UniProtKB/TrEMBL annotation:
<keyword id="KW-0472">Membrane</keyword>
<feature type="transmembrane region" description="Helical">
    <location>
        <begin position="12"/>
        <end position="30"/>
    </location>
</feature>
<keyword id="KW-0812">Transmembrane</keyword>
<dbReference type="GO" id="GO:0016020">
    <property type="term" value="C:membrane"/>
</dbReference>
<feature type="transmembrane region" description="Helical">
    <location>
        <begin position="65"/>
        <end position="85"/>
    </location>
</feature>
<dbReference type="Pfam" id="PF03083">
    <property type="entry name" value="MtN3_slv"/>
</dbReference>
<protein>
    <recommendedName>
        <fullName>Small conserved membrane protein</fullName>
    </recommendedName>
</protein>
<dbReference type="InterPro" id="IPR004316">
    <property type="entry name" value="SWEET_rpt"/>
</dbReference>
<keyword id="KW-1133">Transmembrane helix</keyword>
Length: 86
């Protein structure tokens, strides 16, 4: 496998894992709605981090769609989860 192909595969795997990491907030979101409130710090920090990555990908000279797509769920799910923790 060439270095370029390996790099491309690692990028794809990292993008999938990033989306899964943010989707994992759904369990905390459900607990929050059921009355078992969690700490909002981590989801809010994740939302800020994801927002920065989306901004970076969007403002790059050539839009970096894998970074945007991998982090967009983190903006939404981090904010929603953090808000429901309050």
């Amino acid at each position: 496998m060439t270095h370029s192909k390996l790099n491309q595969n690692i990028g794809r795997i990292a993008s999938v894992i990033s989306v899964l990491m943010y989707v994992s907030y759904l369990a905390q979101f459900a607990s929050n709605l059921a009355g078992q409130k969690g700490n909002p710090v981590q989801p809010f920090v994740a939302a800020v981090n994801a927002s920065l990555w989306v901004t970076y990908g969007w403002t790059a000279p050539k839009k970096d769609w894998p970074i945007i797509i991998a982090n967009a769920p983190g903006v939404v799910l981090g904010l929603v989860t953090g808000i429901t923790c309050l």
